[in-house]
């Protein structure tokens, strides 16, 4: 594994000490079930084979030194266990710092500092969860270095809390959960209300999942993500006046149609409609996949995109262009945006023999319309965050 030896060499150059502790945490792609997690609904994500690596060593003092090969220009960033506050100038290092702080807030004692060298091969800002990847990676490192014996789901919840409270992005639990609990060759159906989950093997003989990156620059924190959450909460509060529900996704499509007029603002009603229909669509899609009905799975992916475009309004010209071009390419069974939206990536289910054509056509036509090229990744599904050696 040359990547690991490379990272160990880099670790020595950076910290003047050797380490044999190497960890990995994947990125994630969601196949269907978008903007349902914080509405108490179902999601169907999987962990990717690319992600974030870390080489780690303990220190004697209370200093924490972190260095990312992805942000060399920022150099090594140092902070201390006695001052774990958010600092803008610490940039990406606020993600690991937020996780350390959250662990301490929950009473887990971190007795000494440590050095970490990070390297990620998830494209940043692509909506494949590079931030959740480094959060869960940090949690797994702390758990291992200090023998904290915390189970993965508790760590996943603390990572989400770090993102919500320390970073200030009001995300749901999907990203951290899929990165922590991922399983090779499987997507997971997760009920974000109860955290019940099960794995569903992806036996897609003759087919591939392709992620296409719009390459549009996007920041989740300053996007309209938090605004969408608030809109859903407003709709929920109005629906709760006529029906005893705890979250939007408790409603079936039919139940929603019967009471939708109680949502006074038509925009909020559209947001709620998306969440409720998308949740049911996710269950139908998992069934289709398990029945080996890939055609139906693809059609449900397409419907998901249309709902995110028209009712949830989180797509935009770049994502819509990639998806509508994909719909017209031979061999494509389904294509949709994945993740928060507002840029980022699409995911496409396609017959294997058409992959080259797909990449060629999309590159040509997307570039003609948008002015820059998309990038492509074939999805390989890996296990969740773990110690490698
Ligand atoms: C982001 C969030 C997730 C989820 C998706 C949309 O990735 O971090 O919690 O809400 O957007 O499905």
From TrEMBL:
List of residues binding substrate: 34-37, 225
Location of the GHMP kinase C-terminal domain: 285-366
EC number(s) from the headed UniProt entry: 2.7.1.6
Catalytic function, reaction form: alpha-D-galactose + ATP = alpha-D-galactose 1-phosphate + ADP + H(+)
Domain GHMP kinase N-terminal, chain residue ranges per copy: 94-182
Domain Galactokinase N-terminal: from-to ranges: 11-58
Chain positions recorded as Mg(2+) binding sites: 131, 163
Active site residues per record: 175 (proton acceptor)
Keyword Transferase on entry: yes
InterPro entries to which the protein is assigned, alphabetical: Galactokinase, Galactokinase_bac, Galactokinase_CS, GalKase_N, GHMP_kinase_C_dom, GHMP_kinase_C_sf, GHMP_kinase_N_dom, GHMP_knse_ATP-bd_CS
Alphabetized UniProt keyword annotations: ATP-binding, Carbohydrate metabolism, Cytoplasm, Galactose metabolism, Kinase, Magnesium, Metal-binding, Nucleotide-binding, Transferase
A GO CC annotation given for this chain: cytosol
Gene Ontology MF, one: ATP binding
PROSITE patterns in the cross-refs: GALACTOKINASE, GHMP_KINASES_ATP
Major subcellular site: cytoplasm
Annotated binding of ATP, by residue: 68, 125-131
This protein's pathway: Carbohydrate metabolism; galactose metabolism
Site feature Transition state stabilizer, where: 28
SUPFAM superfamilies membership: GHMP Kinase, C-terminal domain (SSF55060), Ribosomal protein S5 domain 2-like (SSF54211)
Cellular localization per UniProt: Cytoplasm
Entry similarity comment: Belongs to the GHMP kinase family. GalK subfamily.
Role played: Catalyzes the transfer of the gamma-phosphate of ATP to D-galactose to form alpha-D-galactose-1-phosphate (Gal-1-P).
Protein name as it appears in the record: Galactokinase
Source species: Clostridium vincentii
Lineage summary: Bacteria, Bacillati, Bacillota, Clostridia, Eubacteriales
Gene name tied to this protein: galK
């Amino acid at each position: 594994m040359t990547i690991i030896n490379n990272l160990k060499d880099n670790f020595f150059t950076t910290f003047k000490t050797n380490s044999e502790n190497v960890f990995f945490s994947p990125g994630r792609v969601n196949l269907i079930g978008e903007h349902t997690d914080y509405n108490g609904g179902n999601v169907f994500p999987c962990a990717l084979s690319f992600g974030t690596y870390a080489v780690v060593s303990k220190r004697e003092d209370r200093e924490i030194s972190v260095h990312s090969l992805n942000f060399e220009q920022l150099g090594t960033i140092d902070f201390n266990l006695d001052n774990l506050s958010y600092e803008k100038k610490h940039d990406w290092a606020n993600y690991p710092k937020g996780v350390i702080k959250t662990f301490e807030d929950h009473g887990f004692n971190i007795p000494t500092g440590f050095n970490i060298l990070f390297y990620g091969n998830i494209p940043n800002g692509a909506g494949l969860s590079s931030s959740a990847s480094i959060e869960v990676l940090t949690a797994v490192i702390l758990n291992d270095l200090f023998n904290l014996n915390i189970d993965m789901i508790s760590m996943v919840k603390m990572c989400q809390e770090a993102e919500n409270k320390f970073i200030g992005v009001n995300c749901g639990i999907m990203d951290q959960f899929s990165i922590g609990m991922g399983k090779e060759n499987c997507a997971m159906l997760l009920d974000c209300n109860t955290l019940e989950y099960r794995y569903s093997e992806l036996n897609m003989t003759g087919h591939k999942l392709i992620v296409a990156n719009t390459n549009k620059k996007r920041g989740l924190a300053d996007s309209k993500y938090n605004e969408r959450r608030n809109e859903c909460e407003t709709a929920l509060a109005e629906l709760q006046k006529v029906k005893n529900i705890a979250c939007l996704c408790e409603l079936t499509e039919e139940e929603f149609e019967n009471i939708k007029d109680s949502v006074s603002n038509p925009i909020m009603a559209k947001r709620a409609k998306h969440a409720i229909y998308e949740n049911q669509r996710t269950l139908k899609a998992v069934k289709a996949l398990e029945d080996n009905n890939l055609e139906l799975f693809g059609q449900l992916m397409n419907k998901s995109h249309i709902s995110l475009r028209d009712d949830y309004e989180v797509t935009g010209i770049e994502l819509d262009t990639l998806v509508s071009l994909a719909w017209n390419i031979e061999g494509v069974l389904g294509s949709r945006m994945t993740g928060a939206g507002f840029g980022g990536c699409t995911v496409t289910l396609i017959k294997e023999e058409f992959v080259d054509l797909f990449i060629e056509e999309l590159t040509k036509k997307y570039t003609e319309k948008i002015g820059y090229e998309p990038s492509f990744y074939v999805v390989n599904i890996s296990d969740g965050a773990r110690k490698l050696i």
